[in-house]
């Protein structure tokens, strides 16, 4: 049962409150997860981040810096936000949810079937985290290490944005949770793939970087779709393609069988890579 | 911790005392902002609680009240300027996009916000605006028109446009668009639903549901819960009425078995009633539930038809069987377990509960074996359907209270009189001690034909004298209300090489779940609303319904017809394919026509002999012709993407218009002192527009302005009897009762006028508005009222009438679909959906269109992605709107058109027939046949998931 609602005015105050109440407190951004009936945890203390004014989007020469409290709808409306990220945001179909949910909250939720995280990883996004000292780390590292602290910004390097990107998802109906999510990033030089990044969500408890597939694509022409599908299927563990509970009460694929999910993972990766290849540095 | 927040609410700065945990939705409702509704219990998946917060639409259920401190909130209450509705509100009413109205405030706010951002929004922008708001009634399609009209009216308040086709030029209001009579109340967000009627100090009832699908209650200890301060009553099988009944709201004597008490010694599904707590607050009743200690003897559950009929299967009802009439000579109760209680049959339905058979029936015409023998081609297929939830946005809810020693039930029901009969029977009191007031219903769809919550709250109020609110949460609505029966239908067709059908055989098995509500009639309806579409001399059907431990099944819009139609219509598609014949040509060759004699209906009565019917009107011919032209039937569409295959499909459909010989309806029209009219209709409007329909009929018949007809409906104290809003009876039965009453009053008015002006009543005619015209002079209704109501008059003119009939007014339709199937991923996109329906004279054309769009989209849902998923213990894994996957606006077909095909039925009021349920019968077979046309794969079970497509294609 919630007993206290705090609205700190500075990041330090917010971190002090979290330090004081520890597991009895939770940061509150938009509230679409923490305030949802699906959220399995109950906290006595709510630390609202609204007063921190972390909702700016800045476009500098080398970076796009997105405040952690920017709502998803603000991302979709900003002229600074890359197109491919807007496409991923659009996969959160409900406008009412996009108007409340924040970029930082979405990242902190760490859902395996997240619509944004695969692309942000593929974009090699960095996070500014206050722990309380300011620290910058790759999103991918953040998701693996679960550090203490507060996400204040998402940083996109424009050098990465110049690559080819695409994201996709598999879902049963327009507003259902994504069963699978995929993002891909690569460079294409005379038809030869360089430095591909492929991220798959939904087939396990955590987002999966398909590193073996990346290695096999490196320095070669993009294979035919059938070959790509085969490659992914061989490298997505059958055992991970099962009904799974990912994060707080978020599950996906409860009725689909593993063969199906493995197949669709292959198809989705293939179509996402193909789409990326058809782009022209789509994110810039 | 209490805190004070400041909010600018609808333009006024307000201060509210709140607690940090209080949701903004709850805060607003506490402050009498009734327009914020609750459909998902705070999941954020329905959007019914939408508000505009600092210029953005958000779900107020996802906000803690301190989050809005210092902010600006708008709700729908701010839209109207006193009595004047805003342009957006009038546009919604003009386009018929308001049905049950429960989601309407959210839709209105989304429109307001959209038009503030885009003066002339595109279709995609409109979809985005409504992308988070769930509507089960309307099918969303008319929202595009509503927004367009609102945009124009914001610029020009007097802008008018035709929003629906018009019918019957000779009539004034029938067949013409007119705002829904209950519409203004709903678009204002006024108090309208059961939850809005709750008085301060009322008690809250909460139910302890069984965690097991099949178990005996070995012991139950409620002492600690009962000792808690504020707990008023705990009800279990030990202290509930010792009365067996059935929850189905059907005409008495019901075919459904009396196979339950309010609480049983045995629980039969996950979520089945174990104990109810009545306490002085919602939180307290929830806390008290946790103090109840229950010990179970867990039994193996039966979850499928296959498990139910297996030799040695666990017996769901090992009960003692009793018959009111017609007990079988070999009735044997020796193996019954007393803990299973009794089953009482009003008459035999060929049940054998000790073999898990809830009901059985078979019948036919001609000689099926002869028909098969003379066939040159025989096709046989088995079709399966999954369990589907009705998902009314407003869950089951009831509010009960005492008034002068009588029990008052504020109900969200389709069957006020059946509800009163069933409750009074359980309580052992006479019906005159019970009043049922049907409030506005926030979606019913069949689920509210059953008495799912009312009798428990009524019992609690009757015993304690306390007012009680009982509202299911969304999880309970999924697992403990009503769902569409899973079925397995084997169809065998015999035919000549020219396509002439010589034999049709349907063997249908249904899973009714734990209780037998509708266990005979829903599966029978699968046959009676599909077999008569085809003209064939040799037809036979077998129906067997099984008990099991899945969540309860019951009525759901279509009432079995969607399952039967899917099986038989798809079998026809397969037969045509086997014959090498065009599917449409096959249907055209074998379909029913005007004047066809439907002998098969004789053996498809509901537990008694049915009435054969001659088809009095049939719009199938023009529907098929127009639909074929619209979709360019016979031409193949190609995609630029080699993985995408495009195909077309068709299905013909029918329903009924009530039950001839079983249903009845009554109405009363009274002339008021100033010449206006008061209509008392027993008809139960569940959002479909029945109140508007009956008002129009009276207005038309009596040449009176619609605004001069006021209506009270579905209140057992005030209005005359009506069976209720089921079996598609509303238009035909309740509408005809209103027409008969109006005609009766017309005669009295003419007689009175004849005396006043000294002419024969035969020479008098009604003239609009509200005038009787004679050869020599005219008199107004006001003058007639004063004449009859004065001290020398004959009294207030009043006409009460009943409508019963042995005739059927059968609606027909043809649905055409074009799908694009991605053969690499199995994904299906519906590119075109054309629903052409003959509902006779559409009395409310724009509302009829909304009924069609809504019915079709519901069933596109179960065709493509909706289904309840149970684990091996009978627990529903997706008992919420998000994971169950209800269709939202972005699931709409790309080109979605409902077309009203006019006929003039000789028996329907002003030629009208039903429209709502039939709309559910075409999607599954039409989509499935289109998938085959695209891919060559027959999908014989719904939903047609990508996984099934890929398996059919041999990809996985």
Question: What keyword list fits this structure?
Answer:
heterodimer; A: 284 residues; Enolase-like, domain 1; 3 domains; four-stranded antiparallel beta sheet; 25% strand; B: 956 residues; alpha+beta; Ubiquitin-like (UB roll); Aldehyde Oxidoreductase, domain 3; five-stranded mixed beta sheet; 37 strands; 23% strand
List the helices and strands and how they pair.
The complex is a heterodimer of chains A (284) and B (956).
Chain A: E1 4-6, H1 11-21, E2 25-28, E3 45-48, E4 57-59, E5 63-67, H2 72-77, H3 83-90, H4 95-98, H5 103-109, H6 117-122, E6 126-130, E7 134-138, H7 139-145, E8 150-157, H8 158-161, E9 164-170, E10 180-189, E11 192-201, E12 208-209, H9 211-217, H10 225-235, E13 244-246, E14 250-252, H11 258-278
Parallel strand pairs in A: 1-3, 2-3
Antiparallel strand pairs in A: 4-5, 5-8, 6-7, 6-8, 9-10, 10-11, 11-12, 13-14
Helix pairs in contact in A: 10-11
Chain B: E1 3-9, E2 12-18, H1 24-30, E3 50-53, E4 56-59, E5 71-74, H2 87-94, H3 104-117, H4 123-129, H5 141-155, H6 183-188, E6 203-209, E7 215-221, H7 223-227, E8 231-235, E9 266-267, E10 273-279, H8 282-290, E11 293-298, H9 305-309, E12 320-323, E13 342-345, E14 357-365, H10 368-373, E15 377-385, E16 388-389, E17 397-403, E18 406-411, H11 416-427, E19 434-438, H12 454-464, E20 468-471, H13 474-480, E21 483-484, E22 487-495, E23 501-513, H14 521-528, E24 539-547, H15 561-579, H16 583-590, E25 597-598, E26 613-614, H17 620-630, E27 644-654, E28 665-671, E29 677-681, H18 690-701, E30 709-713, H19 730-757, E31 765-767, E32 771-773, E33 778-780, H20 781-789, E34 798-803, E35 812-822, E36 828-838, H21 845-864, H22 881-884, E37 895-900, H23 923-935, H24 946-952
Parallel strand pairs in B: 1-5, 6-20, 12-13, 18-19, 23-24, 29-30, 36-37
Antiparallel strand pairs in B: 1-2, 3-4, 3-5, 6-10, 7-9, 7-11, 8-10, 14-24, 15-22, 16-21, 17-18, 17-20, 22-23, 25-26, 27-35, 28-29, 28-34, 31-32, 32-33, 35-36
């Amino acid at each position: 049962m919630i007993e206290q609602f705090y609205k700190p005015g500075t990041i330090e105050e917010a971190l002090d409150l979290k330090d004081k109440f520890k597991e009895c407190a939770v940061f509150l951004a938009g509230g679409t997860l923490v305030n949802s009936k699906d959220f399995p945890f109950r906290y006595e203390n709510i630390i609202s981040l609204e007063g921190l004014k972390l909702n700016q989007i800045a476009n500098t020469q080398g970076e796009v810096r997105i405040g952690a409290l920017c709502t998803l709808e603000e991302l979709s409306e900003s002229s600074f936000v890359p197109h491919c990220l807007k496409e991923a945001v659009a996969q959160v179909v409900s406008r009412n949810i996009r108007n409340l949910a924040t970029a930082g909250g979405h990242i902190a939720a760490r859902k395996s079937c997240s619509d944004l995280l695969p692309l942000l990883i593929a974009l090699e996004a960095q996070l500014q985290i206050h722990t309380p000292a300011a620290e910058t780390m790759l999103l991918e590292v953040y998701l693996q290490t679960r550090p203490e602290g507060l996400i204040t910004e998402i940083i996109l390097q424009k050098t990465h944005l110049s690559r080819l990107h695409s994201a996709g998802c598999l879902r049963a109906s327009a507003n259902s949770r994504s069963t699978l999510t995929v993002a891909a990033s690569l460079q294409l030089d005379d038809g030869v793939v360089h430095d591909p990044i492929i991220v798959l969500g939904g087939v396990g408890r955590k987002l999966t970087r398909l590193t073996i597939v990346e290695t096999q694509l490196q320095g070669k022409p993009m294979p035919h779709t059938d070959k790509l599908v085969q490659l992914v299927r061989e490298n997505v563990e059958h055992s991970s393609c099962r009904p799974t509970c990912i994060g707080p009460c978020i599950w996906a694929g409860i009725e689909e069988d593993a063969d199906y999910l493995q197949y669709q993972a292959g198809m989705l990766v293939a179509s996402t890579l193909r789409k990326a290849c058809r782009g022209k540095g789509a994110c810039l | 911790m209490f805190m004070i927040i400041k909010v600018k609410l609808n333009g006024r700065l307000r201060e509210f005392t709140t607690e940090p945990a209080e949701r903004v939705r709850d805060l607003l409702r506490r402050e009498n902002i009734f327009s914020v509704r609750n459909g998902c219990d705070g999941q954020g998946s329905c959007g019914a609680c939408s508000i505009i917060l600092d210029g953005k639409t958000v779900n107020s259920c996802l906000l803690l009240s301190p989050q809005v401190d210092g902010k600006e909130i708008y709700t729908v209450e701010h839209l109207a300027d006193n009595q004047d509705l805003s342009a957006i509100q009038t546009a919604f009413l003009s386009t018929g996009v308001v049905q049950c109205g429960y989601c309407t405030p959210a839709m209105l706010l989304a429109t307001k916000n959209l038009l503030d951002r885009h003066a002339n929004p595109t279709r995609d922008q409109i979809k985005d605006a409504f992308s988070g708001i769930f509507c089960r009634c309307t099918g969303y399609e008319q929202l595009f028109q509503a927004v367009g009209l609102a945009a124009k009216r914001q610029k020009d308040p007097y802008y008018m446009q035709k929003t629906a086709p018009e019918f019957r030029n000779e009539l004034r209001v029938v067949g013409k668009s007119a705002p829904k009579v209950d519409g203004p109340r709903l678009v204002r967000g006024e108090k309208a639903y059961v939850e809005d009627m709750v008085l301060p100090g009322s008690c809250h009832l909460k139910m302890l549901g069984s965690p097991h699908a099949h178990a005996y209650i070995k012991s139950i200890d409620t002492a600690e819960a009962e000792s808690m301060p504020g707990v008023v009553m705990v009800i279990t099988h030990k202290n509930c009425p010792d009365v067996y009944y059935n929850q189905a709201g059907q005409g008495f004597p019901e075919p459904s078995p009396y196979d339950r008490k309010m609480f049983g010694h045995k629980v039969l599904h996950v979520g089945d009633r174990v104990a109810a707590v009545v306490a002085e607050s919602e939180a307290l009743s929830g806390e008290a539930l946790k103090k109840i200690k229950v010990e179970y003897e867990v039994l193996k559950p039966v979850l499928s038809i296959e498990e139910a009929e297996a030799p040695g299967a666990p017996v769901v009802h090992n009960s003692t069987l009793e018959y009111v009439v017609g007990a079988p000579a070999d009735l044997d109760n020796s193996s019954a377990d007393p803990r299973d209680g009794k089953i009482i049959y009003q008459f035999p339905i060929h049940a054998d509960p000790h073999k898990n058979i809830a009901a059985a029936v078979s019948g036919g015409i001609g000689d099926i074996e002869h028909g098969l023998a003379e066939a040159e081609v025989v096709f046989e297929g088995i079709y399966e359907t999954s369990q589907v939830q009705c998902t009314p946005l407003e869950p089951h809810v009831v509010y009960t209270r005492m008034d002068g020693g009588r029990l008052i039930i504020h109900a969200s029901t389709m069957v006020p009189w059946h509800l009163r009969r069933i409750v009074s029977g359980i309580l052992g009191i006479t019906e005159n001690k019970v009043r049922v007031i049907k409030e506005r219903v926030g979606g019913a769809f069949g689920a509210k034909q059953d008495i799912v919550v009312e009798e428990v709250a009524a019992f609690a109020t009757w015993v304690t004298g306390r007012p009680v609110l009982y509202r299911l949460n969304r999880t309970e609505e999924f697992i403990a209300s009503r769902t569409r029966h899973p079925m397995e239908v084997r169809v065998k067709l015999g035919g000549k090489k020219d396509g002439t059908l010589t034999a049709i055989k349907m063997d249908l098995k249904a899973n009714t779940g734990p209780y037998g509500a509708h266990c005979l009639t829903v599966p029978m309806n699968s046959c009676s609303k599909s077999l008569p579409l085809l003209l064939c001399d040799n037809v036979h059907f077998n129906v067997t319904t099984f008990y099991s431990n899945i969540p309860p099944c019951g009525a759901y819009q279509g009432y079995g017809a969607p399952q039967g139609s899917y099986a038989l219509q798809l079998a026809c598609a397969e037969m045509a394919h086997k014959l090498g014949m065009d599917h449409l040509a096959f249907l055209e060759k074998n379909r029913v026509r005007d004047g066809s004699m439907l002998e098969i209906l004789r053996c498809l009565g509901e537990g008694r002999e049915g009435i054969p019917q001659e088809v009095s009107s049939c719009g199938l011919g023009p529907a098929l012709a127009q639909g074929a032209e619209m979709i360019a039937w016979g031409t193949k569409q190609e995609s630029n993407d080699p993985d995408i295959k495009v195909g077309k499909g068709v299905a013909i459909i029918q329903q009924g218009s009530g039950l001839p010989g079983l249903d009845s309806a009554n109405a009363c029209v009274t002339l008021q002192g100033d010449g206006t009219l008061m209509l008392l209709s027993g008809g139960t409007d569940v959002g479909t527009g029945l109140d508007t329909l009956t008002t129009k009929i009276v207005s038309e018949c009596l040449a009176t302005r619609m605004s001069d007809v006021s209506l009270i409906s579905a209140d057992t104290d005030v209005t005359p009897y009506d069976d209720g809003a089921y079996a598609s009876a509303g238009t035909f039965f309740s509408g005809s009762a209103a027409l008969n009453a109006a005609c009766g009053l017309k005669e009295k008015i003419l007689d009175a006028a004849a005396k006043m002006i000294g002419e024969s009543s035969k020479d008098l005619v009604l003239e609009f508005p509200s005038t009787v015209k004679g050869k020599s002079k005219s008199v107004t209704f006001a003058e007639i009222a004063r004449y009859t109501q004065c001290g020398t008059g004959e009294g207030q003119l009043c006409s009460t009438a009943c409508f019963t009939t042995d005739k059927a007014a059968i609606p027909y339709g043809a649905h055409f679909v074009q799908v694009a199937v991605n053969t690499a991923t199995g994904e299906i996109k519906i590119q075109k959906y054309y629903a052409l329906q003959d509902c006779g004279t559409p009395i409310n054309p724009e509302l009829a269109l909304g009924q069609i769009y809504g019915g079709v989209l519901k069933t596109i849902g179960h065709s493509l992605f909706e289904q309840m998923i149970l684990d091996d213990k009978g627990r529903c894994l997706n008992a919420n709107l998000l994971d169950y996957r209800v269709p939202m606006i972005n699931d709409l077909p790309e080109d979605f058109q409902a077309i009203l095909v006019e006929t003039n039925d000789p028996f329907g009021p002003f030629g009208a027939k039903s429209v709502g349920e039939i709309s559910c019968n075409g999607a599954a077979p039409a989509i499935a046949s289109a998938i085959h046309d695209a891919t060559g794969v027959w999908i014989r079970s719904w939903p047609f998931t990508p996984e099934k497509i890929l398996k059919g294609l041999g990809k996985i």
